[in-house]
Amino acid sequence: MSTLQAEHVYKVFARRPGDRAAAVRALERGADRDELRADGTTAAVIDASFRVEPGEIFVVMGLSGSGKSTLLRMLNGLLEPTAGRILFDGEDLTALGAREMRHVRSTRISMVFQHFALFPHRDVLANAAYGLEVQGVPRAERERRAAEALTLCGLGGWEKSWPDELSGGMQQRVGLARALATDADLLLMDESFSALDPLIRRDMQDQLLELQRTLKKTIVFITHDLNEAMRLGDSIAVMRDGRIVQQGTAEDILTRPADDYVASFVQDVDRSRVLTADAVMDDAPEDVPDGADGCTCPTVSADTPLADLCAVSARVPHAVNVTDAEGAVVGSVPQDRLVAFIGDEQRPPMACACAEVAA
Q1: pTM of the full structure
Q2: How far apart are CA 87 and CA 272, in angstroms?
Q3: What DSSP character marks residue 166?
Q4: What is a single cellular component term in the Gene Ontology annotation (predicted)?
Q5: pLDDT one-digit tens code per residue, 277-314
Q6: What is the tens place of the pLDDT at every residue in 214-258?
Q7: Same domain, 28 and 104
Q8: Buried/exposed code over 232-268 (b: 16+ C-beta within 10 A; e: otherwise)
Q9: Residue 139 domain-assigned?
């Protein structure tokens, strides 16, 4: 399990090295990147710091030109930071030579590209095994591992097919299998699902979440789609004009936006599909009805989406109980609190079993 950390990372594009260093100093003093652009200098990433915990999906989101893809390419050494450090399991990647960095890329860091990047003259199995071929793994071993990765990605039986025989979603699964076959510690995914139509895109999100429950990889996922970020990210960083303007969970960003930009960015998100009972529940009151008191009303778990919680609340004439895995009540969600979070009008609850008991 691997930890990735960025410490005050800058990436500046300029004609002369001296201009790049001077631009970093100006940015540290508070200069705006528009001021630098007038001199022909582009500040793509400005003072980016974050930490990705082992087994976490860390999503970097922002509009086009925000610097998110440039940031990703610095994480695997395709671009060299102008300033700052990138640490991977405590090792400073920015201090490695070109040969050492190539070894890290081929063995410990895999990348899944936006446009599949499959070789049209290689079959599915050979495409999935390519990273292992680069490592020098013997053919029988790399084909075995590639076949296992394809099966994990739902492509068992397609090993001898050609890329142009596959749908876009299937081609992206091959790209994901290629990354998984190397058993790299870190997966970098650059807008990996954005070229897919909405239904296939959601299927790929489901596939990634299912794989992550099993493999528990450390993943950095780049997207411009807020709903995708909210669905996938254990932690999310929002970028604007080269800077990370907010980091936190989906709940943090939805309920406590750092500024007007983030607030406007998230205003159209379906909160009922992102927030869960855990975000809105109160501490369990002492007199919560439970099975021992004859109440057979449905309960929810802490990770129940608000959309599903609403359906339960509509059938329960009291606060909905939130229970743990053993069935113990850990909290409750009053209907007025639920309505306040989703901004909907309150509807009267329907009769339920406990009302019949009381009668």
Answers
A1: 0.82
A2: 37
A3: S
A4: membrane
A5: 888 888 765 455 544 455 778 899 988 888 888 888 88
A6: 889 999 999 988 889 988 999 999 999 999 999 999 888 988 899
A7: yes
A8: bbebbbbbbbbbbbbbbebbebbbebeeeebeebbee
A9: no
